[in-house]
Amino acid sequence: MRRQATLASDIVVDDCASSLSSRAGVGLKLEHAADVLNGGHGVGFFEVHAENYMGAGGEPHRVLSRVRESFALSLHGVGLSIGGADPICEIHLDRLRRLIERYQPALFSEHLAWSSHGGSFLNDLLPLPYNLATLQRVCDHIDLVQEKLRTRLLLENPATYLLFEESTMSEAEFIRSVAARTGCGLLLDIGNVYVSAVNHGFEPMAYIDAFPIDAIEEIHLAGFAVDRDDGGTPLLIDSHGCEVAEVVWALFQRTIARTGPISTMIEWDNDVPAFAALAAQAKRAQSVLMTEERRRARRISA
Amino acid sequence: MLQLAGTQNAFAHALLGPERAVPASIRGAARRGADRRFAVYRNNVITGLIDALAQRFPVVCRLVGEEFFRAMARIYVTAQPPSSPLMMLYGGTFPNFIDAFAPAASLPYLGDVARLELARGRAYHAADAVPATPQIFTGLPAEQLGHLRVRVHPSASIVASAHPIVSIWQVNADPDHAVPIAPWTAEAALVARPFTDVEVRRLPPGAAAFMSCLLGHGAMAEAVEAGASASTDFHLAESLAVLIAANVVIGIDGLAPASRLKRRTSSRRLRPRSAPRPVDAEHSALLA
Fold it and tell me: Do B98 and B9 have their domain in common?
């Protein structure tokens, strides 16, 4: 307990990103609270969906406050609608600001997607056409968010199921431009890369090669489900409902060999397993990060 | 900008109705049709919202069966999608929708059971506050009781119905310990989360009117009046006992400063007389 408390305070004081860089985390589920507070099976940090902690009080805050005493936190927004044609909701931005002030997360991320339109919240991460008009909109929104929250936003690449006629650039190109223009960091979701690669017929490793690696501060890994599209070809669904697939582990290993250790999070939000099973996935990610760390240390000393 | 808004307009419109045409500018890989691909988003949105309602209204779902519930919820989510990214707020108008939903008319209590579940969800996320100890009620000066106003826990609310909604809820929330509902009569619930768990209490006659008045920060005399007008079976002692047992009082306001000073020890007289302060648990302990 004491060791963990020291660890958490280090994270507040240290440069946040680097102090998490060789750790693997999982999403925090309230049903796992007892396991987490009882040591956490060696999990390095926890990530929460910001919107689930925007109530005034009660169990969510009680659990998160206690978890935060012992662990570093990554705050992951799902409701800001950064790619929305509508303006960013200032009230929501203010809720995020208060959460960040209260819990001092090491990382804060949101999605390259839209979810609100015309006063309705559509509760999904919807896809965007990639062109100059969208680029301007997304950059304006990220500038506003980073200014109001006074923190670096990590933008996550989406899993998508369809494309737009009006797109004029690739997703990786688009994201590279956003990072260059706004100075935001990036969250590379390797599960999403693989899902989109199969759905749109591109090479996942080519996408990662084109991705601006220097800006990556976090990696997500998640399980997917398999469906079929109109032509009968496989359509992968980013379901977050099972273990990370071997093909995604292989991509993760190749990515880490290129980038070096980066804090990595296992997403498992549906059919959530016992905490031990979730922690085992994090342990596997952790061993990939540590192997790379040792490999790099040997290279430097040689 | 305008182009993006146009795309999102068409996309959002098509998401909420399977009969609506998919946006013209979407495509799948190799320019094949994208209907099934668009259906993934449609399904994510609609199913996700229905699931959110099923999670928030489990007893309503149990009462009508899952198939009926999901069909009813599908109509609601399409007509009234969320207006906030806080899914914990979604479904606030679902009880009213149920009241007006003709296929559910044979269950006239369904809307009120939904109101009870809505109140439970609100209590779960309500602000924290420390309940006063029951001693806060002892030693209060009798001549001032009528002027007292209790401060109630932020999680507390009253749901009153012409139907036995508390019994219906209890039987279905815990079917293993179900007992027959008798008599079939009007019931009201006090819903609150004084400590860690949300609690539901059946209120005695007139207590709903009495407590609603207190929740609105009415004076004790007004609350008694409201309780007595609501039911000839209203008993103040009985309603106060429920209020105390429920641990929903967090403080008492409206006690005149003079009566407090009268009973104070000399060391406490240092506080200025001109600043009447609310009586909290600590003060009432002094008064006791």
Answer: yes
CA distance B270 to B43: 67
Q: Which residues pair with A163 in a beta bridge?
A: B27
B45 touches chain A (CB under 8 A): yes
Show pLDDT as tens, one digit a residue, over chain A (302 residues).
333 333 333 333 333 344 566 799 999 999 999 999 998 888 999 999 999 999 999 999 999 999 999 999 999 999 999 999 999 999 999 999 999 999 999 999 999 999 999 999 999 999 999 999 999 999 999 999 999 999 999 999 999 999 999 999 999 999 999 999 999 999 999 999 999 999 999 999 999 999 999 999 999 999 999 999 878 889 999 999 999 999 999 999 999 999 999 999 999 999 999 999 999 999 999 999 999 999 998 988 76
Each residue's pLDDT tens digit, B187-246: 999 999 999 999 999 999 999 999 999 999 999 999 999 999 999 999 999 999 999 999
Cβ–Cβ gap B28/A122 under 8 Å: no
Give a yes or no: residue B120 inside a domain.
Answer: no
Q: CB neighbours of B91 closer than 8 A, spacing ≥ 6?
A: B52, B53, B56, B57, B118, B121
B41 and A124 within 8 Å at the Cβ level: the answer is yes
DSSP track, A118-146: TTEEEEEEE----SHHHHHHHHHHHHHHH
Among B44, B48, B25, B21, residue whose Cα is nearest residue A159: B44
CB contact under 8 Å between B127 and A57, yes or no, is yes
- Is B187 a member of any domain? yes
Facing A200 at nearest CB: one of B29, B85, B86: B29
Residue A49 tokens read as 């969906």
Residue pair B185/B205 in contact (Cβ under 8 Å)? The answer is no
ipTM: 0.90
What is the C-alpha to C-alpha distance for residues B288 and B284, in angstroms, rounded to an integer? 6
How near does any CA of chain A get to the CA of B126, in Å?
5
Instruction: Check if B130 contacts A (Cβ < 8 Å).
Output: no
B35 within some domain: yes
Nearest CA in chain A to B35: A230
pLDDT in tens, A226-266: 999 878 889 999 999 999 999 999 999 999 999 999 999 99
Instruction: Provide the residue range defining the domain that includes B249.
Output: 127-288
CA-nearest of A87, A51, A101, A146 to B84 is A51
Residue B2 lies in a domain: yes
Q: Are B162 and B215 in contact (CB under 8 A)?
A: no
